[in-house]
Design a protein that fits this description.
It contains 18 helices and 21 strands. By secondary structure, it is an alpha+beta fold. Strands 1, 8, 9, 10, 11, 12, 13, 14, 17 and 18 form a 10-stranded mixed sheet that branches.
């Protein structure tokens, strides 16, 4: 299959009555899983240009990585990924050098790819070289001081080393993310060209992995049938031998299929559709507040949002509780309120310290010299309208009470990101996520620099110096003091208003167990089983 065919040959999926279920009748119910989701993968690779989030659901389950985040049960039966507990996966073991400037990995001696080819350190090096050869992969690996193929060393067939220019606590977690998949280099190189030495194009439409599952059949845009790789050596064999993942665009149809028992799992459930499942005893909903966050961006490079007092006034004027209930039906973790000023914890995002107080909002506007208010626009992308529209309407009404006249602008899907890159949008609704959990990583990505990810165009010299100093700080007490000061600054200067962590709601049959939540929010097939 050509890349262009993969990316363009989508097939619309119809109503539930047309969903093929004969595959399940021919197999043991205990060994088969049927998953319905809203979207479809547009690539089998993890960092091709334009790759969508659904593609991660494929690559995560068909490829191994050297290491992975462990899962821990928080008492509710869900496995939550543990960012601070990294375990071997394809690697049998790993060791950090005494000076913390290299990490050595011993590979599992019996690991093979899906075609039976043994996995070697040469495959690992080729795969890591491939990451830094891609602008997307290189940008992420740079956060862990991995920038050059020279840093990836084959010691022997089963020993691989990563050399670092300085100790970097982000190097190891970077190797557990979505990008550093271990590719069967011998297979991929058969499809490489002079212009494409890492077979990037071929790998978008073809699998060359050795993960817990392999792709048995794929109808692009419609369904993918996974089969368990019974020779997988990097963990316990998954509980299902077959997983059929199908695209059903309408949430109501996914919910109806789940209730009828035609589907085992329904993903991508909007908050309003979750309500119809919560009281149904035949199914269950697992809702996990995610590491992603949704927020109100205020462009600090444009007046009047370059005035801290204006940003504070807006933060005090918002009807947070109404927004949370109306937009999310309370599904998630709200991040308003809490203690102003100096924080008690260095976890971030955390509660902003702002709650609804219209009198304080009016006083701050007056102090800013805008007692009569001002006019502005508030933008959101139509693809986020389900949540963004009620937020916009409630914001418009609330700010009107303090004299700020808001015109709502609905941006066509796919265009807001470009507009944010150009820093031309004054006020808007958006969401994002941080793959790495360290607070200084969050601040470096979202509160410094000139990229689109610095959503508030925040420029504070003291803050920038703190972020730079924390980057390689090894003294925990010093690091904690640096982070607390950064949190104190952003609470005061409020570059953006983080509203909440939305819940990731997944509906499933009562007999499905082993659900695990990981940082990329896609389905972890390896841990699932039927009771």
């Amino acid at each position: 299959m050509k890349r262009r065919d993969f990316l363009t040959s989508t097939v619309a999926f119809g109503a539930a009555a047309t969903l093929p279920i004969s595959w399940a009748h021919a197999q043991s119910r205990a060994e088969s899983l049927r998953v319905l989701s809203e979207g479809a993968a547009n690539s089998l690779d993890t960092f091709s240009v334009g790759v969508n989030r659904n593609s991660i659901q494929v690559s995560w389950n068909i490829y191994d990585r050297l290491v992975s985040f462990a899962y821990k049960d928080m008492g509710d039966g869900v496995g939550y990924y543990d960012y601070f507990n990294i375990q071997p996966q394809l690697a049998e073991s790993f060791e950090m050098a005494a000076d913390k400037k290299s990490i050595t990995f011993k590979l599992r001696p019996d690991a093979t790819f899906h075609d039976g080819t043994p996995v070697t350190a040469a495959d690992v090096k080729w795969s890591m070289d491939r990451v830094v050869a891609s602008p997307i992969g290189a940008s992420q690996f740079k956060t862990g001081s991995m920038t050059s193929p020279d840093q990836f060393v084959v010691v022997d067939d089963l020993t691989f080393r990563v050399d670092l220019p300085q100790p970097d606590r982000f190097a190891l977690p970077n190797l557990a993310l979505t990008y550093p998949i271990i590719v069967n280099s011998k297979l991929a190189l058969q499809h490489a060209t002079t212009d494409d030495p890492f077979a990037m194009e071929w790998l978008q439409a073809n699998a060359a992995g050795g993960g817990a599952f392999k792709v048995a059949q794929m109808d692009v845009g419609e369904k993918i049938l996974f089969e368990r790789f019974d020779d997988w050596k990097s963990g316990h064999l998954p509980g299902f031998k077959r997983v059929l993942w199908q695209t059903v665009a309408t949430a109501e149809t996914r919910v109806a299929s789940l209730i009828r028992g035609d589907a085992d799992i329904a993903q991508d459930l909007p908050p309003k559709d979750v309500q119809s499942l919560l009281d149904n005893p035949d199914v269950k909903v697992i809702g996990v507040p995610t590491s992603s966050f949704q927020f109100l961006g205020m462009n600090g490079a444009l007046p009047p949002f370059d005035n801290k007092l204006v940003r504070q006034a807006i933060a005090y004027a918002l009807p947070y509780d109404d927004m949370f209930q109306t937009a999310l039906f309370g599904r998630g973790r709200a991040l308003h309120g809490g203690k102003p000023g100096a924080p008690d914890s260095i976890a971030y995002p955390q509660e902003s310290g702002y709650s609804t107080d219209l009198d304080k909002a009016r006083a701050l506007l007056a102090e800013a010299g805008m007692a009569d208010g001002f006019k502005t626009t508030f933008s959101y992308e139509l693809s986020q309208a389900t949540i963004a529209e009620p937020v916009a309407l409630l914001l418009q009404e609330a700010l009107g009470k303090i004299g700020i006249e808001v015109e709502i602008e609905k941006v066509p899907a796919g265009q807001l990101g470009t507009m944010l890159q150009d820093k031309k949008v004054p006020f808007y609704f958006e969401g994002s996520t941080a793959y790495l959990a360290d607070p200084d990583y969050f601040f470096r990505v979202f509160y410094t620099g000139d990229s689109r990810w610095n959503f508030g165009a925040y420029q504070n010299p003291e803050f920038g110096e703190l972020v730079a100093a924390a980057r390689y700080e090894a003294d925990e007490a010093v690091y904690e003091a640096q982070v607390k000061r950064m949190i104190e600054l952003v609470k005061d200067e409020i570059p953006i208003i983080i509203l909440w962590h939305p819940a990731l709601d997944t509906g499933m049959q009562n007999d499905i167990e082993g659900y695990s939540f990981t940082f990329h929010r896609q389905l972890e097939l390896k841990t699932l089983k039927r009771s």
